[in-house]
Design a protein that fits this description.
Layout lengths: L3 H17 L3 H17 L3 H17 L3 H18 L2 H15 L1
Helix pairs in contact: 1-2, 2-3, 3-4, 4-5
Length: 99
Amino acid sequence: MQTLYGQSIAVGNLGMLAQVKRDFSTARTCFDQHLQLVQALIDPEAEIEAWKLMAGLSTAQENHEEALDSFEQARRIAEREGHHNELRRINCLIGVSKG
């Protein structure tokens, strides 16, 4: 793909497919690349979603501490950007993750 947006979408989708197939190593690699791309694009909404993908992967791997860290990253961005509805959703996800 020729654009960073296209690349970020493609690699994010590959990561989701890998996670569904329980290929967590590949999913992690793809999600890391996806996160780097959306950060380079300076797209806060996409970065929030990327951190939530990372948190979901960590949860699937039962690494709850890492999931919380990823959710916290997403929460900080949502708070900084004034995305109040997203902030409420992330706070709920953090609560569920904590148990």
